[in-house]
Recover the amino acids of this structure.
């Protein structure tokens, strides 16, 4: 009867041996010209119906816009070789590069641009309607000239159109079957999708019709969902990825395994949205006290393993909108926070609600930090599905832990955060000088020498007179295998021009 | 096919075929009722939550005007009952609609993810049957010995572990400590059988514990009871080998309760997969259900519900048939 025990033991041993023998290996190491890219797969391959800001990094492989962002986040020519505004900034004419086609052979001319942008502005299912509202009408002046007529002076259009909002989709494709674009995109960008398994991976190959194909040295891409944090480094080691986004917790392990780690500033920033029409948030002193009571570096150290930048403003360092003069506006100062609270009439402390849909523990850490200054936080948790409705639409939460994914257009970013109609301005009001500052950004040509100063002034005014609290900017972190050369980090949508995979 | 009309119900009730048919019809009635109630509840909950697909999908572009347009595009602006019956009508023709947030047809998502979940649940079931069966036989053939007590103690302790606790413990031991297995993620079988299996072993073990322990206990009890039956004594007297007695007689009668337990555990395996897939980052149905529920993606949640219920129904039917077949007396036509 001991044979039973032996059999069990033998079976267990065999299974363990089999599994550990072929363990986590089994993938190929990098092949020249082929890139294995680990990045979250898009919610949709159709830019107009995409529901996540991070989709832009996947979709920028497949689509080109009239413009694209350079590594620092400045709009530069893409499908359009140049553009020109009229004298008062109410119309902009883009001149297209000649002889461009979409991946299905459709000609990319002014009429196609008009059709594509109008779908983004008008389609019921479009998630980009609000952003494209400013475009009143579109005129086709010639096959290579398209004029956008605006409802107000706005020099930010080239920035606005450089991401999901302005990606050009083949009219042939969306007129035939717009729903199919979710899984079978047809753009005019550097790569075309050859197969796609949602939730698993997408295969892409180089599109030779892209105007800048000479600068694309990658022949094919396998774009796959990054594995769980704990196995990402194992995946890198076994060649599953050449470039993969990794969580901050895995940086040390990736470096120890011999991979380059690129900490890449991005437009994402953690915020507290505030309704300044609800007491006690209507008192600027209370908001200042909250700002001084927060230890931003400690928040980063705990919730982001130290990868992030404490910030009090919307744009990350390295972006044209980053204003160095206000960088140290709110040092961590409990004493000062208490003084401000006393001045506001709360010498014995104060109790405030904080709404969160985030379960990472950040809200609890903020709660602990504010308590030191005598601010007792009552956390209310809502589901992610209710978040937009509760916070932005019904405005049921006077103080909400949120994040801002950024915008290609600095003026639109300021509009969302601080504008009188801005969704993340829960009080839906702004002093005259804030609106004037944002307006000055829109109405200053972006190549004007004064533009940077105008933007900095607008940021300064908004940050010092509005209640929005900024916590920290968090970067995208990539682990890169030694076989990848000339990898370039981008503040905005990620791009692959000039990147080579030489194998390893 | 027997059509049981009013005149011959009494005689038909004695014929096994129509008994099976009546049982099947009852089962089907239950499933249809459950499905209708559950799918309507999903719809109603979405409505009560006060969330709208437009508000969720648009994020920081969610202007009231844009939300209204988006909601209209997915038909969310119609009354609840209209939306429900519209969904029901399409579902009957095999069209489960498209996700509100990805635009991907729900049937496609289910087809992509079902193999992962089936592999996981199937593997877990296999482990439960093999390990639980062996342990049950070992314990049952040596009642009240030290081995029996040990097995009973261990299975009692392990069965109280929820899959996520077991999962985390397994990760700590086998992935972090020993470095033998990946701690999560998934690669399809195309990447190689060993690789594919390596991603499934730990989650399957975590998911199987509960069922394995239950099978062990039931089988042990069944065997102990069967060994005391007269036919076993008779078989021993006739000089049959212990092995033949065990597999030819004892197990066939003793396995009934254990099999019934398997039937009971199948829904739990499917439900437990939601948690287990989350711990081990497996792109299965459970993962889809969780994402859908988090976003309030009603078409996706409805689709998952439908598939889960169908699975439970099919498995239960299969177990019932097996139970009938296994009893030696079943071939004699009396019961």
């Amino acid at each position: 009867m001991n044979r039973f025990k032996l059999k069990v033991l033998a079976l267990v041993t065999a299974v363990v041996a089999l599994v550990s023998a072929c363990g986590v290996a089994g993938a190929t190491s990098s092949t020249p010209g082929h890139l294995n890219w680990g990045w979250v797969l898009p919610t949709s391959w159709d830019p107009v119906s995409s529901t996540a800001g991070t989709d832009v990094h996947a979709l920028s492989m497949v689509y080109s816009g009239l413009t694209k962002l350079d590594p620092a986040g400045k709009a530069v020519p893409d499908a359009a070789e140049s553009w020109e505004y009229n004298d008062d900034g109410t119309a902009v004419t883009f001149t297209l590069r000649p002889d461009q086609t979409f991946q299905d052979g459709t000609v990319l001319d002014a009429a196609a641009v008009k059709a594509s942008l109008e779908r983004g502005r008008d389609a019921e299912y479009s998630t980009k309607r609000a952003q494209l509202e400013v475009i009143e009408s579109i005129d086709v002046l010639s096959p290579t000239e398209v004029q956008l007529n605006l409802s107000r002076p706005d020099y930010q259009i080239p920035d606005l159109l450089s991401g999901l909002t302005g990606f050009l989709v083949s009219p042939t494709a969306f007129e035939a079957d717009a729903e199919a674009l979710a899984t079978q995109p047809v753009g005019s960008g550097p790569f075309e999708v050859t197969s796609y398994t949602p939730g698993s991976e997408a295969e892409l190959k180089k599109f030779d019709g892209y105007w800048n194909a000479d600068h694309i040295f990658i022949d094919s891409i396998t774009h796959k969902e990054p594995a769980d944090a704990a196995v990402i480094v194992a995946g890198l080691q076994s060649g599953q990825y050449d470039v993969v986004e990794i969580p901050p917790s895995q940086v040390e392990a990736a470096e120890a395994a011999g991979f380059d780690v690129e900490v890449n500033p991005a437009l994402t920033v953690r915020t507290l949205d505030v309704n300044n029409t609800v007491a006690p948030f209507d008192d600027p002193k209370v908001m200042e006290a909250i700002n001084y009571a927060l230890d931003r570096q400690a928040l980063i150290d705990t919730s982001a393993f130290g990868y992030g930048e404490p910030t009090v403003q919307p744009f990350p360092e390295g972006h044209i909108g980053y204003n160095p003069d206000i960088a140290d506006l709110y040092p961590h100062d409990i004493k000062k926070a208490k003084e401000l609270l006393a001045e506001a009439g709360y010498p014995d402390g104060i109790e405030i609600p904080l709404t969160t849909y985030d379960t990472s523990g950040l809200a609890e850490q903020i709660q602990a930090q504010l308590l030191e200054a005598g601010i007792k936080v009552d956390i209310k948790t809502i589901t992610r599905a209710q978040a937009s409705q509760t916070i932005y639409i019904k405005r049921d939460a006077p103080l909400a832990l949120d994040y801002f994914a950024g915008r290609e257009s600095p003026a639109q970013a300021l509009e969302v955060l601080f504008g009188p109609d801005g969704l993340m301005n829960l009080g839906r009001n702004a002093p005259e000088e804030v609106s004037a500052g944002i307006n000055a950004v829109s109405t200053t040509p972006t190549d004007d020498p004064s533009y940077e100063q105008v933007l900095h002034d607008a940021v300064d005014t908004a940050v010092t007179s509005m209640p929005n609290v900024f916590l920290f900017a968090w970067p995208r972190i990539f682990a890169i295998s030694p076989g990848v050369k000339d990898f370039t980090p981008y503040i905005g949508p990620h791009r692959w021009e000039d990147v080579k995979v030489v194998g390893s | 096919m027997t059509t049981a009309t009013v005149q011959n119900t009494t005689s038909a009730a004695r014929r096994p075929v129509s008994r099976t048919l009546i049982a099947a019809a009852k089962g089907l009635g239950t499933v249809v009722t459950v499905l209708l109630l559950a799918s309507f509840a999903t719809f109603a909950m979405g409505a009560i939550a006060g969330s709208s697909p437009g508000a969720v999908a648009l994020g920081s572009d969610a202007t009231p005007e844009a939300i209204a347009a988006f909601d209209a595009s997915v038909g969310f602006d119609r009354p609840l009952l209209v939306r429900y019956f519209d969904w029901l009508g399409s579902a009957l023709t095999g069209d489960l609609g498209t996700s509100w947030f990805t635009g991907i047809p729900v049937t496609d998502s289910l087809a992509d993810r079902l193999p992962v979940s089936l592999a996981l649940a199937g593997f877990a079931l296999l482990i439960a049957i093999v390990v639980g069966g062996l342990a049950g036989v070992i314990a049952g053939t040596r009642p009240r010995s030290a081995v029996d007590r040990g097995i009973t103690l261990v299975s009692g302790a392990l069965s109280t572990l929820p899959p996520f606790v077991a999962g985390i413990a397994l990760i700590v031991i086998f992935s972090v400590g020993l470095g033998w297995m990946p701690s999560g993620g998934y690669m399809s079988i195309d990447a190689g059988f060993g690789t594919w299996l390596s991603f499934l072993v730990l989650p399957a073990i975590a998911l199987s514990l509960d069922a394995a322990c239950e099978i062990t206990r039931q089988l042990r009890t069944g065997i102990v009871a069967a060994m005391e039956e007269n036919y076993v004594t008779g078989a021993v007297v006739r000089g049959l080998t212990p092995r033949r007695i065990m597999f030819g007689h004892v197990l066939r009668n003793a396995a009934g309760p254990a099999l019934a337990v398997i039937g009971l555990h199948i829904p739990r395996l499917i439900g437990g997969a939601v948690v287990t897939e989350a711990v081990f980052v497996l792109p299965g149905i459970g993962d889809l259900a969780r994402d859908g529920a988090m976003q309030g993606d009603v078409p996706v949640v409805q689709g998952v519900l439908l598939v889960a219920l169908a699975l439970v129904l099919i498995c239960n039917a299969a177990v019932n048939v097996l139970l009938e077949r296994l009893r030696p007396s079943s071939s004699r036509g009396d019961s």
